[in-house]
Amino acid sequence: MAVDQEQAAGGSVWKKLELGVCYYPEHWDESYWAEDLRRMKELGLGTVRIAEFAWNKFEPEEGKFTFEFFDRFLEYAEKAGIRVIFGTPTATPPAWLTQRYPESLNARTDGVLLGHGARRHYNYNSPKYRELTARIVEKLGEHYGQHPCIVGWQIDNELNCETAEFHSESDQRAFRSFLKEKYGTLEALNEAWGTAFWNQDYTDWDQIRTRGLTVGNSFNPHQRLDYLRFVSRSAVSFCRLQSDILRRYIKPGDFITTNGMFGHLDNHRMTEECLDTYMYDSYPDFAYALTEDPVRSADLNDRKWSRNLTEARSICPHFGIMEQQSGANGWNDRMEAPAPKPGQMMLWTMQSIAHGADYVSYFRWRTCRMGTEIYWHGILDYDSRDNRRVEELRRIRERVEKLADLAGASYVPAFGLVKSYDNNFDAEADNWHGRVQYFSETEIFCGAQLAHTPFDIVYLGAERQESELTPEKYPLLFYPHGTIVTEHEKEVLENYVRAGGTLCIGCRSGYKDECGRCVTEPMPGLLRELAGGNVREFTWVRPEEPVKMIWRGRQFAMPLFNDVLEAESARVLGTFAGSWYEGRPALLEHVYGKGRVLYLGGVFTRELVQAILEYVGAAEPWADVISAPECCELAIRRNGGQEFLFVLNYSGEPQTIVLKRQAMDVDDGIWVTGETTLKGYGTKVYRL
Ligand code: GAL
User: Fold this and answer.
1) Reported pTM
2) Could you tell me which residues come within 8 angstroms of residue 668 by beta carbon, excluding any fewer than 6 positions away?
3) Fold of 415-616
4) CATH 3.40.50.880 domain residues, the chain
5) CB-ligand 1 contact for 18 (6 Å cutoff)
6) CATH 3.40.1170.60 fits 626-687, yes or no
7) Nearest residue by C-alpha to atom 6 in ligand 1
8) If pLDDT is split at 50, 70 and 90, which confidence band does 313 have?
9) What are the pLDDT digits (tens) for 498-514?
10) What is the CB neighbour count within 10 angstroms for residue 214?
């Protein structure tokens, strides 16, 4: 490993907070470079990420390598005192490559190959593509590994972005090997996939495909679950192929990373196996465009990006932002986001830093003048003039310099939200599971955000995170709908509760095994003893049905899905009202070891989340430090004795906050207390 022990244990690869920018020398005449780099330096953008799509600049013909172009660019960078994150160019295979080796291409389920003209048209399993990838990465490592201005390496670009479906012939073969390794025999596979249903038994491995064209949309869900695990494993192995090579060439202290975050991919495993740090691409304005919310969560808009940042922090506690939105967004065929309003570039940068980013790199230096992304705007417009965003960047730079020693400080959570990749994958194919999971995770986020109660996402199965699952770190855990529960997970959760933690679970918990088949034990299956109760009946709830829960004299909506519970060793806290199961248990509390389990027969609305946070004493941990309106997000990062408080106003209107004890405003170094007004989209950072 090139990183030191502290980094390997989840520490930061950055010694101080840094800013950077994405740059594409291949898009601009050489006459631009010196001035561009000079201006970056002047604006405090100390690092550029380059080369991640530029395969032809290194290998214009098969086997003919040249490094002249980027050698020259690196000379300019060195002169300008700019550091470099070097990308491996495998997200965009050249036309000569896919023409000669069409097996490298990805394919649709019907076998039609995807072609040249966009990007990410390759597959992870083609032996030829892996060979050519290994060769180009080896050549880049050999040539640039010791280059003084390089500080890090980015593998590929956004693995699984644009598509996370792979159906080429190479994938078919690799899928069969994956299954042979997993099941050994076809009998075992048939059993796991429940092929007795609809006569789907396989009698020859070659009959198995990733997914064929089927009648309607239905497809064997157990096969689909294994397929998603397979896609994840393929992406990790492709990343590993590259990181193993780079490790042999890079300088001590340089890091290997990749940027994300996309579906069908166990990012925790990829980071553990291949990377020194993980980077997230943050475009908060995307959130306005998300309309598929089943309920009402669109109201948090760009603030909802904090949920993605929470997920990124779960993968890597001190992550980087490889691409931070800095302009209006759109492709030539899509329109995504308007120009950031005055203050929003600072707001989104602070949002990333508040959540744990130690490096923020903007996308991109100057808006590209050709191709699909002519409307995905960067800091500069096509004309290169100084503009409003440049002015805002100057203010960001000033603040980031004052915050430099924040690097490595940890986000302070009040509780944890538990997830697992098996459940993520299962929820995708299973609408009964997916709807409740999406609802509750969104509402837990919204409820906690509005109540100024910060939280972490914690993945079961991720070694580092499981080791941190203690009541000291997380006095409360929500695991809203852990549908698939394994013996190992059961043990992890039991140990946590036994040691004094409060675990809160919801409907549809524990009713599937690892293959995604329903269990025959009463629900919640393996979690029954821990929950101290079981499910007698269950039903989904139509939107117009006014089912409620009565708890502590209040009524809570119980939409979407209800499990009618039966207490065994637990006591009944809440009961249903407004349905044929009126008066029956809706919320149980079970004391187990030094801790307890709250078992809700429903999904978690934000009102209920807030009531639970209050009930267990986890709500508003900073109430004695600050009071702030709902529309402001609060976060604290802590480094030893040092604490930094972030206050982020997502509304366009001024907002008044009250500091209840002395805090130093990092912008002017003055200790303040009492009332302060933040401008619309304004932010403050205080040292406590
Ligand atoms: C990211 C990607 C960039 C650029 C940007 C805007 O997902 O990594 O290369 O495409 O989006 O579309």
Assistant:
1) 0.97
2) none
3) Rossmann fold (3.40.50)
4) 415-616
5) no
6) no
7) 376
8) very high
9) 999 999 999 999 999 99
10) 10
